[in-house]
């Protein structure tokens, strides 16, 4: 019988070291919230392919939709021969997105493509090149996306200089001892010392940081950014690649705010495990790029588009937004009860909207200093 160890040995011999692993497991099959490895061991899948399968592994309605599409065709390239699932999905998302007025959509294959194309669209619309992002944010691993990402290790270390004209503002959170006032003051310093706001095309932010620890952007920060963007003609981008499609208890995390973004990047869980990402935004901004300036050979693949349409049906019919809220409430209540026990590792800062819940493991009960060693053991 092939074992996890066998496949790990083969993987180490054949696959580059730069692609890391959270676990040494090799998947054999998965259903709903469970996964079986190559040795037949059964697990509850807390990773979900990094927040991808919000509808569960292999939801029967999604699989059926994809199988039906496979009998028709699997690829034409939308820029060569268009197809209805792409258009129908754009129509449905345009109707759902929390942006007022006329909106349009464009689809891509990876999250990095979504964020990079959002930057391209903003640059085309404004005629500017500067970008403001936030520390701890994650926007992808390609050259521009990694420049946006506010974390050096492991996304930038040893990989050469980042692209110019990208500046980072400290993300406000109590855990990092950064207030909204601090963040806005730092943004003011950037405008005074590094770049005039008239040269900034966009400010990009995750409404709830994913890789950065599930810290939710404060309401007053989003309000201030909207005001600054309006004042200086800057495009506000909400990166919802991880938060989008129900994880925060609403379809989009931006629904938690009384602020609208101009562009929204979506979304790991949009297509139930099939690779599909996109940008949705205000029509005048989205239409700024010239024909041919956006797209990709596999962008908006028909199999992924029909999967996404099925995902939206499942969300509606199975009331998954309500499910997300219930799961989040249950998680927080349970964690708060565990927090009072003296026979467990000390935890603090239970946080996050909907089912996007996190907490910190700390060194001392009642303290604030994280315990990375204990955290690593718990994760493993």
Molecular structure report:
The chain is of the alpha/beta class. The radius of gyration is 21 Å and the shape is globular. The strands form 3 sheets. The chain has a 7-stranded mixed sheet with strand order 4-10-9-8-7-5-6, with helices on both faces. A 3-stranded antiparallel sheet has the order 1-2-3, with no helix packed on it. It has a two-stranded antiparallel ribbon with strand order 11-12. It folds into 3 domains: 1-46, no CATH class; 63-317, Aspartate Aminotransferase, domain 2 (3-Layer(aba) Sandwich), CATH 3.40.640.10; 319-380, no CATH class. 39% of the residues are buried. It has 12 helices and 12 strands. The two termini are 24 Å apart. Strand 2 and strand 3 form a beta hairpin. Helix 3 packs antiparallel against helix 10 (302-317) and helix 4 (84-96) packs parallel to helix 10. The protein has helices at 4-14, 48-51, 60-72, 84-96, 111-126, 143-148, 180-193, 219-232, 283-286, 302-317, 320-339, 372-379; strands at 27-31, 34-37, 42-44, 103-108, 130-134, 166-169, 200-205, 235-239, 263-266, 277-282, 347-351, 358-361.
Radius of gyration: 21 Å
* Largest sheet data: 7 strands, mixed
Average of the residue pLDDT scores: 96
* Class of secondary structure makeup: alpha/beta
Residue windows where pLDDT falls under 50 for at least 5 positions: none
CATH architecture of the largest domain: 3-Layer(aba) Sandwich
């Amino acid at each position: 019988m092939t074992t996890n160890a066998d496949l790990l040995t083969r993987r180490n011999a054949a696959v580059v070291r730069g692609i890391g692993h959270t676990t040494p497991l090799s998947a054999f099959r998965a259903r709903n919230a469970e996964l079986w490895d190559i040795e037949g061991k059964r697990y509850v899948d807390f990773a979900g392919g990094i927040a991808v399968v919000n509808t569960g592994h292999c939801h029967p309605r999604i699989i059926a939709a994809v199988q039906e599409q496979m009998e028709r065709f699997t690829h034409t390239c939308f820029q060569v021969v268009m197809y209805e699932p792409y258009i129908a999905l754009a129509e449905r998302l345009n109707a759902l997105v929390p942006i007022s007025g006329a909106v349009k959509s464009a689809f891509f294959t990876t999250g990095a493509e979504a964020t990079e194309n959002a930057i391209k669209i903003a640059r085309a619309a404004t005629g500017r090149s500067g970008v403001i992002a936030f520390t701890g944010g994650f926007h992808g691993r390609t050259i521009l996306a990694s420049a946006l990402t506010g974390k050096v290790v492991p996304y930038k270390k040893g990989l050469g200089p980042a692209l110019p004209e990208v500046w980072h503002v400290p993300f406000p959170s109590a855990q990092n001892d950064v207030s909204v006032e601090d963040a806005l003051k730092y943004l003011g310093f950037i405008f005074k010392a590094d770049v005039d706001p008239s040269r900034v095309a966009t400010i990009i932010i995750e409404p709830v940081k994913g890789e950065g620890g599930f810290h939710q952007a404060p309401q007053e920060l989003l309000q201030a950014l909207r005001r600054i963007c309006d004042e200086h003609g800057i495009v506000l981008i909400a990166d919802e690649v991880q938060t989008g499609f129900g994880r925060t208890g609403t379809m989009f995390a931006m629904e938690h705010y009384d602020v609208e973004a101009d562009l929204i990047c979506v979304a790991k869980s949009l297509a139930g495990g099939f690779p599909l990402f996109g940008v949705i935004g205000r029509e005048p901004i989205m239409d700024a790029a010239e024909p041919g300036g956006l797209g990709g050979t596999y962008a908006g693949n028909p199999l992924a588009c029909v999967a996404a349409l099925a995902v939206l049906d499942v969300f509606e019919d199975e009331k998954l937004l309500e499910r997300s809220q219930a799961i989040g409430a249950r998680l927080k209540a349970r964690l708060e009860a565990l927090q009072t026990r003296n026979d467990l590792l000390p935890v603090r800062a239970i946080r996050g909207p909907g089912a996007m819940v996190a907490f910190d493991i700390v060194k001392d009960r009642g303290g604030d200093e994280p315990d990375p060693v204990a955290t690593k053991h718990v994760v493993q």
